[in-house]
Amino acid sequence: MSLLARLFGKAPAKTQDPILHKDCRIFPEPQKAPGGFRVAARIEKDFDGQTRTHNLIRSDIHASLDDATEASLAKARLAIDQLGDTIFS
Length: 89
Fold this sequence. Notes:
Blueprint: H1 3-7, E1 19-21, E2 24-28, E3 31-33, E4 36-47, E5 50-62, H2 65-83
């Protein structure tokens, strides 16, 4: 990461394979926030050949990117478990 990116708080872009959970694809995408990283994830699922997306953003902030990534994954799994397909409505 460049010096300017570190000074201005830009996290390096990570492209990673999705984590599968109950026919959904979870992409943990923590967002840079004051004091750390905000819990966020993109959840996708295919319905009749079309991909629907839900962007999950929570107010939780973690100091490290790794902790925020793990929390984002856990919150996304919980949302899928509790809301099922209605998350895409």
